[in-house]
Amino acid sequence: MLDRGLEETPDIEGSSERFEVSDPEVRQEGNVTVVENFQTLCDELDREADHLVRFLQDEVGTSGHIDESGRARLTGEFRQQRIADAVEAYTDAYVLCPECGLPDTKLEREQGALLLVCEACGARSPAGE
Q1: pLDDT tens for each residue of 57-94
Q2: Separation of alpha carbons 51 and 95, rounded Å
Q3: How far is 37 from 22, CA to CA, in rounded Å?
Q4: Phi/psi class of residue 128: alpha, beta or left (left: φ > 0; alpha: ψ in -120 to 50)?
Q5: Pair 45, 52: CB distance under 8 Å
């Protein structure tokens, strides 16, 4: 029975090498920075667009919104590297498991606290730390 159970268990890599996030495609429109591939980033991170745009707003210290075509529009001029650093910080805080480092996580709210729950190793930790 143990052999059969091991055969049916999916192999889980011990690193996050299989997980890659695209670089943000950033362009300026006057005094607004537009993240062209914002929806793609959300899909790759498997997170809600509203959550990611709120984090970006906090990280770069500005206001912003998601337009009708799914692009993030942040008030102010920001370089591509600053947005990329913010996306990386989001990934570390809200996507990658702090225990095993895998991206197989989901966000759950429990008694008002936001938790990062890893589907690979079962770890439960406060999100955003």
Answers
A1: 999 999 999 999 999 999 999 999 999 999 999 999 99
A2: 12
A3: 9
A4: left
A5: yes
